[in-house]
Amino acid sequence: MDIRTKRGTLVRWNNEQRVGFIAPDDGSDELRILGANLLPYEHTPQEGQAVVYRQWKDRLRGIKVIKGEIDLGHPIKLTSPFDNPINSIGIDTISWQLKVGLVVCALVLASLLYLLMINYELSADGTQPPAGLFPAGSEHYIGKQILPNANFSCDTRKQCLQMTSCQEAQYFVQHCPGFEKMVGEMPCEKLWCKM
Questions:
Q1: What is the DSSP letter of 130?
Q2: I want to staple 172 with a disulfide (CB 3.0 to 4.6 A). Which of 59, 80, 176, 190 is the partner?
Q3: Is 23 left (phi over 0), alpha (psi -120 to 50) or beta?
Q4: 3-state secondary structure at position 160
């Protein structure tokens, strides 16, 4: 007999509602059992009969389900109400393969993340983000333009994101009236220049 099975006595049975209560032999609290889970179906349960039972937890509803069989002297094998008895071996195999597959996927993703991190250039003076995070020409942009000798003049541009370099942003902030000096809560120079 399966070591997970327990024994008890059917102490109460309501034949109209097809529900009863089992008093476990170990002295623990009585357990409610539905007639649909009490075998054999063709036998009318009687109070005082010995019952062999097992408990399973229904993962979907979070409740314990009891399946039992009245001990009539026949071999007893209680199967889970959540298993397909025809293909129980296949289900176990699939779940084992699924677990291994999930572990392998996690290891592959962790390896890719590690490779990305070690190939991402980190320097002592700051991190260089990939192209596209900052406007072209920004000091923080990989393809930045350095324009130390350029001459600037005010034009129709009024927003910080329209600039192309740190020097141009500084010139527009200091000399051009109507220029928006802030991008949200960030000063325009901070967006374009290393501080």
A1: P
A2: 176
A3: beta
A4: helix
**What DSSP string runs through 22-84?**
EEETT----EEEEGGGEE-TTS---TT-EEEEEEEEETTTTEEEEEEEE-SSS------TTS-
Tell me the C-alpha distance between 39 and 27, whole Å: 23
SS3 138: coil
Tens of pLDDT along 9-48? 999 999 888 899 999 999 888 988 988 888 887 888 989 9
Sign of CA dihedral 165, 185, 183, 133: positive
129 vs 126: CA distance, rounded Å: 9
Strand partners of residue 6: 53
